[in-house]
Amino acid sequence: MSGMTVDRRRFCRGLAALAGLLIGFFAVLAGPATPASAHAALANSDPANGTIVPDAPNKITLNFTESVQLLNGKIQVLAPDGSRADQGEPVADGGTVTIPLRSGGGRGTYLVSYRVISADSHPVGGSITFSVGAASATPAATIDDETVDPVVRALIPVGKYLGYAGLVLLVGPVLVLALLWPHRLSRRGPGRLVWIGLGLVAFSTLVAIWLQAPYSTGSGLFDVRVGDLRDVLGSTFGAIMLVRLGVICAAALLLRPLLRGTGDDSKTDLALLGVLGVAALATWPLTGHPTASPVAGVSVVVDAIHLAAMAVWLGGLVMLVGFLLRQADERELGAILPIWSRWAATAVAALIVAGVVQALIEVSSLDGLFFTTYGRLILAKVGLAAIVLVMAYFSRRLVRSKAAEAEPKGLRRVVWAELAVTAVVLGITSALVQIPPARSAEASQTAGVSTTVTKTLTDNKMALQIDVFPAAVGNNSIHLYAYTLDNKPLTVVEWTATAALAAKGIEPIEVPLLRITDFHAVGDIALPAAGEWTFKVTARTSDIDQSTLSTTVTIN
Fold first, then answer.
1. What's the pTM?
2. Which of 99, 465, 524, 534 is least surrounded by CB atoms within 10 angstroms?
3. What is the pLDDT of residue 195?
């Protein structure tokens, strides 16, 4: 009967841990993501999106909020007739992409489609339009600039989850085997755990390399070409993944003596393992958000510390509940548990400090914390972490009271619960790395928004385009362009313009204008109040011909 009770308890503990893992996977799969999970944003362009320019430019400049890398064949410019207007290869310099254009593209609306890779290895896609002379029908895009295959998008965080789980099963157990493991106990079980962890890290790395190809290009899971993989391996992301694989192979060779427990492992081997561990941990932040943060160096170091503390703490808990509390005797536990308790306290302190620093960097405001998906997931992670910390507090009390040494079952129950909840925390972490941090989400909401107001006015003699920038209280620039009714430049001999705000009793204010070309004039005016301003423009085209047109512009 007692045997059945023990088996039932073991079953319940295993079920609790499995439930935590399943909920963690669900958190990964259900984690929200933007269409391309882009973590950079188009800040502005030249020509600006939606504007009308008098002459066709010889290049287009795209400025992103973070540095980007180019993808072969994923940037194009279409002329109004649907033909390619770009020529040569675009060039990326940090966050600036320059696209050379051929001459003679004609008048009308141009479409610029782009798909690039941001500094944190996520694709950034989108399109802008601009018009030469006058707007026309927008040409249809021939490349898919924003789509990410849903299967690929779902598998990427799952692969990251497996990688985190592998770190837990690798780092913590190796540390315990090297410094706390009793000599009389067999290392076969912990050794298997370490090999599983090593395998999970290697598998997740290979999966990440494969998935990066369709993730970058927008293709399907099995539509990967050799050239796509070659591009991935030639990128910064691919180089870091190859470094991680190399570290894994080297660590596998150095781990064999330690896992056999024959005493062949030397202090030099352990020191090399420590160096390799640091190098491996650094590969995670170097392919994620930290590389694109405002203080990249600090973010990379803090993120690596966060991962290391997590792996030491959770890996140690796995060793404790899976082996030591079941196999070690009271004397051995009396020596091991106080040391482990100090390790755990240090790891938890590092987790908290590193987590706070990360949050301060990635969530730049209270609005970002409460009103972005990233911020809300941070709050959920903090809430679950608080529950785990309460459990850890009870664990530490049991260790200090010496009760765990004589009767370890109570400590084992608490540790099982800790592991179940932290499995969910790992799931949330895996989802977090796939969505834009709050600072990027806020930047993307404002990036690329042009405050230029463009109006086109016509009468029976001419078409007049008026641009007002920034359409806000204070100094504003006014650009005037004159065209014939068939969209050809029209020579204007003399320009005059006024601005008035009748609702607030502001009489017409003359706009001083400078004639730049035969059909283009520019001026500056200080607008003292917000409201619906009336702009009246008179264009004299000959001694006897002139047109007066007016429009309203909202000034904020």
1. 0.68
2. 524
3. 95
